[in-house]
Each structure stands twice: as C-alpha cells, then as structure tokens.
Design goal:
With about 280 residues, this protein is of the alpha+beta class. It has helices at about 5-15, 70-75, 75-85, 105-115, 170, 180-185, 195, 205-220, 225-240, 250-260, 265-280; strands at about 20-25, 30, 85-90, 95-100, 120, 125-130, 145-150, 155, 165. The strands form two sheets. Strands 4, 5, 6, 7 and 9 form a five-stranded mixed sheet that branches. Strands 2-1-3-8 form a four-stranded antiparallel sheet. Strand 1 (about 20-25) and strand 2 (about 30) form a beta hairpin. The longest helix is centred in the C-terminal third of the chain and has 16 residues, at about 205-220. The protein is globular, with a radius of gyration of 19 Å. The termini are far apart. The relative contact order is 0.12.
Length: about 280
C-alpha cells in the first residue's frame, strides 16, 4: 500500500479524469530539472512521457512532465516531490482545455461583459474561466488576462461551478496581436481572410493535414542547416494556420517530433516556435 499525501491523492483523482498533472513547489513553480537534464543536456522529451531521447524518471521539463500515469505519479522520485509540493497543477492543453486566467476584479468584469459564460473557478485574486478546446498560451493578452492551454500549466483550485462551453472565437482572437512598430517596419503580416470573416477553411481535415504533412516532410528532408529549416518551417505553418486557432496540440507535437527526429532538442523546438510567433506578432 503506497503512502500518499493529500496533494498526491488529488493528483491521482484528477489523472483518473484525464487531466495530466504535476506538483508545484513554492512560488507556484514546477520542480527544477535534475542534473542530467539541466540545459537540455538530455535531449529533452516530448510532452506527457512520449517516446524520446530523455528517459529521466524525475519531474524534469516543467509542464512537459505532466502525466495521467499513476505509476509515474507514485514513483519514488515523484513521491518525494509530492511531499514537498505546495500545490497541484495540470496541463490544460493535454486535456483539450483552455484556461482564461483573470488576475483581478477588472479582468473579471471585462470577461463577464465580453466572453460567453463557462465553468468558473475562483482564484486568490480573480477567476479561471475554463473552455473546451485548445490554443496557444500567450500571457498578457490584455491587462490582467493570461491564456493557459498548449505548452502551459494551471494550478488546480477545485472543480468550479457552471457548465463548460466550447472555446469561443473571442478567446482565440486574444492571441492575435497587432505587430509592434519595429516588426511592422520589417514587412507587413497578412492575416488570412479565413481568420477575419469567420469562415475557416483550415477546419477542413484534408487541408490542414496536408499542410502539417508537408511541414514534417520539409524538416525530414533537411540535410544541413537543420536549425534554420525548423524555424522557417514553423514560421510557414504559423503564418498559414496559426491565426484562426485551428492548430491543436497534436499538430504541434507532430512538428516537434519531426524536428527532434533530426536531432533538435525540445528546448530548441520551443525556442523556434516562440521566435516564429514573435516574428508574426502573434
């Protein structure tokens, strides 16, 4: 019979519901990487313990450690962490969810006037509004508002109240920012008509699948300058498919896996993705 803490008991219950979970230390931060994984020396690993070069049994790689596997959650390394944990977190994108983190009363008031009602969880300073669906996870989309979905984590604060609604276009639109003056000087960014008029051709499975497959092949065919090829491919995918929110975690995972197969680390993939988003002003 395993000895568990209250945080571990909560984590196991959430894992049974399909929420990938991880412990948080003081300051609401994930536990740091072990020595073997520091600075991506291990090669990193994809999200949720998928096959990859890193087989570390510890809680390395931040949100990427989140899991629903009870054997991992109760392993010796994780049990030690649970004893020190200050809170339980979960990876919203891994459960096909998006959390709109409203950090103060003004942000909550804005959401009530602007966004469709959904499941709501009280936080220490505001509220989490939880929608069914995934998107990118930009911070500071407006004063007091962050988005937590793909490649991010949110603190578990209870089941909340209300019925969960589908992720609306009004939330997806928060991730589409106007380019800064400096970026605008480098050249205009064209927003596809599908992202403006609400008719999204990317939701056609064949159209989006073809785009992702072509990107995977472009990376696989790289014989030199792999870093540059990965960045340019991510940039092309985001330019074509990133504005309307149709990219899911499954698509991003496929792109990262293609890059890692060419020797890129997870850290390099994340940096290339973030740099491509910044280039487009997303």
């Amino acid at each position: 019979m395993r000895t568990t803490t209250s945080h571990l008991q909560t984590a196991l219950r959430l894992a049974e519901l399909g929420l990938p979970v991880l412990p948080l230390r003081e300051g609401k931060l994930p536990f740091g990487n072990c020595r073997a994984c520091t600075r991506s020396a291990c090669g990193d690993r994809p999200h949720m313990k998928a096959a990859g070069p890193c087989e570390c049994p510890s809680l390395c790689h931040g949100w990427g450690a989140a899991t629903t596997d009870p054997d991992i959650l109760t392993s010796p390394a994780w049990t030690r962490a649970w004893r020190q944990a200050q809170a339980v977190a979960y990876h919203p994108g891994g459960a096909a969810l998006t959390v709109v983190d409203l950090d103060d009363a003004d942000a909550v008031a804005w959401a009530r006037q602007t966004l469709p009602a959904t499941k709501t969880v009280l936080t220490t300073r505001g509220e989490h509004w939880i929608y069914l669906g995934t998107m990118t996870s930009p911070n500071g989309v407006r004063p007091g508002v962050d988005i937590k979905s793909l490649m991010s984590y949110a603190r578990w604060l209870g089941p909340g109240t209300g019925s969960m609604a589908l992720l609306p276009d009004a939330v997806r639109a928060l991730a589409v920012k106007e380019p800064s003056t400096a970026r605008a000087m480098a050249g205009p960014v064209t927003v596809p008509a599908s992202a403006v008029n609400g008719v999204c051709r990317h939701r056609s499975r064949s159209y989006l699948e073809r785009g992702i497959a072509m990107a995977e092949q472009r990376i696989a065919d790289a014989r030199s300058a792999v870093h540059a090829t990965v960045y340019r491919t991510f940039l092309a995918v985001l330019s074509a498919h990133g504005w309307c929110g149709c990219l899911t975690e499954a698509h991003i995972t496929r792109l990262f896996a293609a890059a890692q197969a060419k020797g890129e680390s997870l850290r390099h993939c994340m940096d290339a993705w973030d740099n491509a988003r910044m280039k487009l002003g997303m």
